[in-house]
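<backbone_tokenisation>
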Amino acid sequence: FQNMGDPSFRLAAQAELDRLVQGRTRLFCLGLAVLNAVAGLVHLAFQPLQHFKIEAPLAVLTLGAMGFLVHWLGKPRAPFLVDFAAGTAALLAVAVALLHLSLSGNLQDTTHLLLIVVGAGFFLYSFAWFLLVAAFSALGWIGVHLAGPPSDSGLHYGVEVGTAILLGLLIHAARSFLLKKFLELLIQKQRHQSEQTRITADLREALD
């Protein structure tokens, strides 16, 4: 295990992990695009016709932005750019969910926001970006609720938003721990492959 701390092994393992994270981030953006499309169709089906002028262009712009991010993540990117893309996608999805909630005036539509927050806890690799998404979600929901008509269910859904943020935080912490363990396994994999290559080369040299 003397090579366990070799920087070359860690760099190779980190590069492999970064590729995996980028692939999952791309799926996250694609999932948000589908979620927003479905939510948009549901809102259009149950909202007054005058909201169509807002909802339809918003749906097109959101799908376009998410589609661009999915395409952009199709090529290798630096980890901080992947974090930026994932965080931007999550913030955009939260903004759309809050706008839907504001237009409908129905706190039951908070469910859309809850799904995004919990999903962000799993897919966002950066803890700072998750905190930003969580804060934007909480403050945005409070603002929409206070600006809307009074509702007896405000406390109930407020607790749900807080619970979703806490659940997302726990999921993010667990995922970060698992990724660290996975990185250690990748380092061991790189070390074993190097040892096998060296042993194979020594055997061939001995046989020759």
User: Anything to note?
Assistant: The chain is about 85% helix and 0% strand. Helices lie at 7-46, 52-72, 79-104, 110-123, 127-147, 154-207.
